[in-house]
Amino acid sequence: MITPPAEEDFVHRFVPAEVGTAASAPTLLLLHGTGGNENQMLGFGREMAGGGWNLLSPRGKVLEGGYSPRFFRRLAEGVFDEVDVIRRAHELADFVTGAASRYGFDGRKVCALGYSNGANIAAATLLLRPAAFAGAALLRPMVPMVPPNLPDLTTISILVCAGRRDPIVPTENVGRLVALLRGCGAQMEESWYTGGHELADEDARAVSRWLSELGF
User: Fold this and answer.
1) Catalytic residues
2) Is the pTM above the cut of 0.70?
3) Which tens digits make up the pLDDT trace of 188-205?
4) Is 135 exposed, middle or buried (0-12, 13-18, 19+ CB in 10 A)?
5) Does some domain include residue 170?
6) Which CATH number covers residue 35?
7) What's the domain range around 156?
């Protein structure tokens, strides 16, 4: 059984860039799906970003069923506790700021790479604390919440990767998220594949190309 982390901090991994220094390199924030942990996305992150990025990977602090880490509570499949979503999104943004100070990386060059629940908390953080990320790759995301005041995301690059046969995330919900983020001015890119909720080779190709075009 996974031991819950202390409430004031995340259990996390930080892997400095192999090329250059942590201070000069951009940072990829890796956000796992339900039941994952701080190690789940590290291999994918290394493959996508190569050695030129720092990798920062926290474990979600909410334990569903007492053992399955998530980044925020849900009431049922696809039904989120929005109060907790808001709380946890601010908490994640504060964690990234603190980690930048602790590890000496540039907090202005942080991109989120989130899968499923990790993609949803990244989307919520973009909507509530847009300065937290310079970009985000959202793999199998849903609309996490809609803030009363929409942020200005005109400087933010966002990639959404979705499956047309995803049994968990309806295509209509993905479309609403894309429209919401585009309405905030984000530089949007979509990548669709014919499968379901699992990650696929198409995702790896889309994320790798998107990261290479960010210009960091």
Assistant:
1) 116, 166, 197
2) yes
3) 999 999 999 999 999 999
4) buried
5) yes
6) 3.40.50.1820
7) 12-212
